[in-house]
Amino acid sequence: MSNRGLGSKRSFSRGLAPFWVVAAVLLVVVPLMNAYGPEGTLLHVSDYKLNLFGKFLCYAIVALGIDLIWGFTGVLSLGQGVYFALGGYAMGMYLMLAIAGEGVYGSELPDFMVFLGWEKLPWFWPPFRHFWWTALAIVLVPGGAAALFGLLAFRSRIRGVYFAIITQALTFAMALVFYRNSLGLGGNNGLTDFKRLLGFALNDPATMRGLYMATVIALGLAYLACRWLTMSKFGRVLVAIRDNETRVRFSGYSASRYKVCAFTIAGVLAGIAGALYAPQVGIINPSELDILPSIEMAVWVAVGGRGTLVGAAVGAFAVSWFKSALTGSTTFAAMWPYFLGGLFVVVVMFLPEGLVGIPRRLLGLVARVRRPSATGDDVTPATTSTDGEG
Q: Which end of the chain is more exposed for a tag (fewer CB within 10 A), N or C?
């Protein structure tokens, strides 16, 4: 192996110790606290909180993809909810078909189709009886949709605020499509009443822990993959595109290809997150395609810290926790959009590096405060004699 390869491997491994500590806590300690922690004590994590953590970790996977395209490439997408929903609906169709014949009507069709008068499954439903097909669709459908959209947009050199507006318009258009009952995906209610995954009951605490642990593993692998990408030549080109796309094109690189690739990876990550989200939350519906959730996703990354990966995951978890606490109150539930907007303004104005930048800013402030005193300690002040000696 060349010295360059060894150096790249060392730089990737450097600084991973905190990652392994957090991974061990999330993957081992939290499930053990759920299974064996004494109830009513701080050592116990309830099933509800475990599900909530799993939901937040799904959001963190989405945030990693957004950070890849926004923090490192400089492309703000306000439409990642589309790919999140596509992955969720793919998993939802598999879960609905897994309980065929067990619904209220006892039909092989999902209950909502019987209620709406459907006589057979839509053409795209039958393959989702197979988990292997579902797993492929979770990756290929969101990834393919992101690649197609990115190819059309980036080849046309759409960027900046115009790209953000177009992605938001795409989200709105997709929401209108998914709200239609004629699409065969449950319309306004979406897909719900999931009972089993691969034969395991979803309401079984052991299955809940398994889904949570699968989400932790997916998040860890997504972080390592994104870290490797951003530390490679690919990542350096992305940062160059963010800083000066015109210069990158003049240097002989196809900026559009790199952006399409990064956008596709972000779409795949969002699709995987949506697939893990659906069985843990128990529902997937067009509300995930509304404009506000996609804006929230961008706020996660801004709050945590763009271009850091860790900040994206931290921001997703922190903002989602704050939202859960706020909307759980009847007094402040309707105020969430205003709090979200205010939080974004505060971060942009006062914390441009996000939450992960706070320690560095504090250390810098301490260093600036100590520097004058440290300089002054080296200088002996002159004294004036008052003894009257001439």
A: C
- Encode pLDDT of 167-199 as tens digits: 999 999 999 999 998 888 988 888 988 988 988
Domain extent listing, the chain: 21-290
Distance between CA atoms of 196 and 94, rounded to whole angstroms? 10
Q: 258: how many CB neighbours lie within 10 A of its CB?
A: 20
Tokens 């998040």 belong to 219
**C-alpha dihedral (360, 80, 269, 245), degrees to nearest 10:** -60
Q: pLDDT tens-digit profile of 335-350?
A: 777 888 888 888 878 8
pLDDT, tens only, 118-174: 888 888 999 999 999 999 999 999 999 999 999 999 988 888 889 999 999 999 999
Is the distance from CB of 169 to CB of 241 less than 8 angstroms?
A: no
C-alpha span between 304 and 267 (Å, rounded): 20
Instruction: Taking each helix axis as running N to C, give the angle between helix 255-281 and helix 80-97, from 0 to 180 degrees, rounded to the nearest 10.
Output: 40
Tokens found for residue 181: 């009952």
Owner of token pair 């015109």: 246
Nearest Cα neighbor of 65 from 255, 349, 266, 264 is: 266
pTM: predicted TM-score of the whole model, two decimal places: 0.88
At 372, the amino acid letter reads P
Helices (H), the chain: 3-13, 17-24, 30-36, 47-66, 80-97, 111-116, 131-155, 161-178, 205-231, 233-250, 255-281, 291-304, 310-327, 336-350, 358-377
| Mean local confidence (pLDDT), 316-344 | 81
| Tokens coding 123 | 């053409």
